[in-house]
Amino acid sequence: MRDLVANDPGNPRAHFEYAGALDYLGREADAVLPYRRAQELGLSGDDLPRLYVQLGSTLRNVGQLNEASKTLAQLESSARVLPSEREMRRVHWVRGEMARLKGDNAGAVAELAKASAMLPARGQVIGPPLPHGHLWFATALAQIKAEKPTLDY
Hints:
Largest sheet: none
């Protein structure tokens, strides 16, 4: 993957894919600069919303919550220009996870519930490469932390 970037350093998609590979390997801190470079070089099309989600999530994971919020605002702005339920679901999901990390359990529950309500009826979630179960788990975790379980036993 590094060769792809070295062979075509002006290609935003090469930097984006390299950042995604680093992210996948758990090297999130190393992924930030290639994501930023892809953005600087003008990544566009369907990859741009993915960049915002992946970079926002990565920034959240490395503790840069303010930068993650700014990145999500860019995603939300682009989603308004080209309305997509999928992109708005991504915004709510990452915001919910960020709220949970900040200890804002009520905010996490609200955002994750919005994201869950936007899931397709079945199948793989289009967006972050995670199945429905991951979003449902995040929502349940936030509800438990907020002491608002949805099931009665």
